[in-house]
Amino acid sequence: MINLIRRMETGCEPFPEELAALLSDAAPAVHTTLFEAADRVREKNCGKAVHVRAIIEFSNVCRCECVYCGLHAKNANVVRYQMTEEEILEAAWDAVEAGYQTVILQSGEDLSYSRETVGRLVASIKRMGNVAVTLSLGERPFEDYAYWREYGADRYLIKHEISDETIYNRYHPHSSFAARLACQRELSRLGYELGGGFMTGLPGQTPLILANDLLLLKKMGVAMAGIGPYICHNETALRGNPDGDVNLTLRVVAAARLLLPRANLPSTTAVNVKGGLTNALNCGANVIMQKATPYKYRNLYDIYPGRDSKDIPLKEQYEALRAQLSALGRTIYENGDA
Ligand code: 5AD
C-alpha cells in the first residue's frame, strides 16, 4: 500500500482494484502515510491558503425524490421556505461584507426560480465586488446553464453522488445517471468551473464503487470535488442505515488530493457537522464551505441531521474561522482573485 501511495503521489493513476484495496486498508500506518502524502501534495500545489465560501440555501423546495435526502419532494414533514430575491441579495451582501469571496447559491430543484430570476441574482451579486458566484441548483435545461453563464456565473456544483449506474438510478427515481453526467459535461463545455463530488458510506457502496467514484472525478475533469459522509435522515427511504464513516471520508479526500493535485477540495458541511473540519484540512482539503443562510431558515434546510444552534453574525463566523485556521498554520485566501 505504501508503494501505491508513493506512486499516486508522483502522479501515477491507480487501477480501480488497487485503489479499492487502499481505501479499505484498516492499518493506521497506511492511513497516516496517505494523509501525509495528501498534505504534502496540497501544500505543494495549493499552498497554505484556504478558500472560504459562503453558501446561501435559498429554497428547500425540491421536485426530486433522492432516497437519502431529507428534503425529497414527498417529505410532507418539512416546512418549506423560499427566500425572496431581496432576501437572497441581502444574505449575499452580508457574506461579501463579512469577507467571503465566493457566494454559492444552492437550493432544492425549485423551478419557481426562473432562468431570468437566477440570472438577475447572479448579475447583482457579481456587482457587489470581487466575488465569484457558484450555482448549485441541480438539473436544469441546458439553456438555463448557458444563460446564467452569460450573466456571470463562474462555477456550478453538481455531484455524481455515486458512480454505480444501477444504484444511482435506484436512488434517484426522478432522473438518471446518464442525465447527471450529461449536465456535468455541458457545464464544462459552457466554461463553468465544474464542481463534482459524491457521498461516502451510502448503503450499497462497495470499496470498488468508491474507487470508481474517485476515478470518475478525474474523468469528468472536475475543478472541485465535494466529498462528504452519508448522514442518515429518518424521513427518507434509507432510514435506519448507518452514517458514513468520517475517517473513511478523510482517506477518500486524501486519495482525491493525490489524483487531482490542483483541485479545490472542500471540507464539506457534512464533514464539518461530524467534527472533521480540522482533520480534513490536514488530509488534502483546501476549501471550507460555511453556511450564510439566514438563521430563521437554516434549520429548515434539513438535507441531513446536524443543526446550527447559535445565531452568530456572519462577520463573527468568518473571523472565528480565521482564528481557527491561523492556529493550524493556515491562512484565508484573500488576495482578490476570488
Ligand atoms: N447525507 C449526506 N449528504 C447528503 N446530501 C444529500 N443528502 C445527504 C445525506 N443524507 C448531499 C448530496 C447533495 C448535497 C446537496 O447534499 O451530496 O449533492
Distance separating the two termini: 38 Å
CATH topology: TIM Barrel
Structural class designation? alpha/beta
Task: Specify the number of helices.
Answer: 14
Q: What is the correct CATH architecture?
A: Alpha-Beta Barrel
**Number of domain modules:** 1
Q: Count every beta strand, where a strand is a DSSP E run of 2 or more residues.
A: 9
Mean pLDDT: 95
Shape: globular
Task: Report low-confidence residues grouped into runs of 5 or more.
Answer: none
What is the CATH homology-level superfamily? Aldolase class I
For the biggest sheet, the summary is: 9 strands, parallel
The proportion of residues in beta strands is 5-15%
Concise summary:
With 338 residues, the chain is an alpha/beta fold. The chain is built from 14 helices and 9 strands. It has one domain: TIM Barrel (Alpha-Beta Barrel).
List keywords for this structure.
nine-stranded parallel beta sheet, binds 5'-deoxyadenosine, globular, TIM Barrel, 338 residues, 9 strands
